[in-house]
Amino acid sequence: MEYLPDLSKLPIPQDDGACNHLLGERLPQLTLTSTGGNQLDLSTLLGKVVLYCYPMTKQPNVPIPDGWEEIPGAAGCTWQSCAFRDYHAELQTLGVQVYGLSTQDSSSQQEAVERLHLPFELLSDADFLLTTSLKLPTFEVEGKRLIKRLTLIADGGTIVKVFYPVFPPDKNAQEVMEWLVQNTV
């Protein structure tokens, strides 16, 4: 059975200001591997882009780290990805491209794309290129450095909205959709 946390029992992450610098930043010129087998340079993406960043998706037969559900904002990656899957068609009607991003390798992400039937690509930042360039907030668990959950909306390569902290993760896609509808010119 797939691990799905009880979101009502998770600790709520607090805004530590770690994303205050991102609004108005340009997406950097660097290449990330996608689950579609592509090398994607975020700086070349035109139009509106939603980039939701998450710590990691649970892999079948791989235990979650000890204390995972006690780390504010850690648990809920599957819920968040499924919510973006469920809103994907509506986001496309607004001309929005959606990508998920974690520091997991592409093969781990590919498993999640297939298992969760995600209609968009996940991007691997296993080398922390984007994380370092944008100074994205991270945390460590069991010797692994992971991205804290956040969502960026970029328009023409510039970050125009930052959702951080993201909680509950299953409501993030709806919040993004509502913001985009209210802020579409």
TrEMBL record:
Coiled-coil blocks: none
InterPro entries documented for this protein: Peroxiredoxin_BCP/PrxQ (IPR050924), Redoxin (IPR013740), Thioredoxin-like_sf (IPR036249), Thioredoxin_domain (IPR013766)
Xref: PROSITE patterns: THIOREDOXIN_2 (PS51352)
Enzyme Commission code(s) on record: 1.11.1.24
GO molecular function: thioredoxin-dependent peroxiredoxin activity
Keywords, sorted A to Z: Antioxidant, Disulfide bond, Oxidoreductase, Peroxidase, Redox-active center
Pfam families: Redoxin
SUPFAM superfamilies reported for this sequence: Thioredoxin-like (SSF52833)
Domain Thioredoxin stretches: 21-185
Family annotation (PANTHER family): BCPB PROTEIN, THIOREDOXIN-DEPENDENT PEROXIDE REDUCTASE
Entry protein name: Peroxiredoxin
Organism: Limnoraphis robusta CCNP1315
